Amino acid sequence: MASKTSMSQTPSSAMEAPLEAKIGKISYLYRSGKPNFVFVHGLGGQKEHFRSAFDAPSGLGKGVLSLDLIGFGASERLRDGDEYLLRAQAQAMSGLMAELGITSINLIVHSMSSGIIPDLLELGKVDISAIYLLEGNLIEADAGWSGTLTAMSDDEYEDYIRRVKKTARLVLSRQLVRSHSREQVQEWSSCFQRADERALRETARYVHHATLGGDIARALADYGGPIVYIRGDAVRDWPGQEALASIGAELVVIGDAGHYVMLDAPDEVYKAIFS
């Protein structure tokens, strides 16, 4: 069944605005409420991938914040010479939440944005009540794309990213399982065309290192709060069960869904998060 949700309009319950952080302006969507749920897109993604969170019946009355990391979506790009460090992203996020008066959150990360978790926890600027990983990076098997980008030469990367931007709709559609309109997939896939090329590659390198080095898994094991890992069932032989047990995470498998599980199955995903 094709999705009927359009991303071209800001959700009526949300505020959309940029905020000046130390490393640049952060673009975000926010609706006040309690408790607060903060959504962070994956590598090459953007805040619009979580627009459906604002309309989810299970989320009514709850605070919802979805942001563009620096270098992605509508957020500012860094000056030459400044690196897209995961800690800098975590500091920018913490500053945004402070400006919005958010002191306690439920954190939801998609894919490679799991790499920000260690720094967010170490900074301790907000209390994190629970962590939800949507197909999050946890083990080496989750780091295939970041590994590919990391291993490329400069020339190979330049050619690769040019092809990704040119065929963005096809690139994203290959990660989806359910039927969606061409217009919807086109809107979702604009994230690849909007992403800063340097932000994409540098972030991939840092997240790849954090994944293979075990930084993410260790931070989650030390966290102590509830952890929920949400996966689509498109990849049935994912070898992460042992890693989930080691961090005490609950596994939720969403049927008929791929890597962008929140796009394929928004109703099921947001019910699992908000409920």
Helices and strands, with pairings:
Elements: E1 15-21, E2 24-31, E3 36-40, E4 63-67, H1 86-99, E5 104-110, H2 117-123, E6 127-134, H3 144-151, H4 154-166, H5 168-173, H6 182-194, H7 197-212, H8 215-223, E7 227-232, H9 241-247, E8 250-254, H10 261-264, H11 266-274
Parallel strand pairs: 3-4, 3-5, 5-6, 6-7, 7-8
Antiparallel strand pairs: 1-2, 2-4
Helix pairs in contact: 1-2, 3-7
Describe the structure.
With 275 residues, the chain is an alpha/beta fold. Helices cover 39% and strands 19% of the residues. The protein has helices at 86-99, 117-123, 144-151, 154-166, 168-173, 182-194, 197-212, 215-223, 241-247, 261-264, 266-274; strands at residues 15-21, 24-31, 36-40, 63-67, 104-110, 127-134, 227-232, 250-254. The protein has an eight-stranded mixed sheet with strand order 1-2-4-3-5-6-7-8, sandwiched between helices. α1 (86-99) crosses α2 (117-123) and α3 (144-151) packs across α7. The longest helix is centred in the last third of the chain and has 16 residues, at 197-212. The radius of gyration is 17 Å and the shape is globular.
Observed structural traits:
alpha/beta; 8-stranded mixed β-sheet; globular
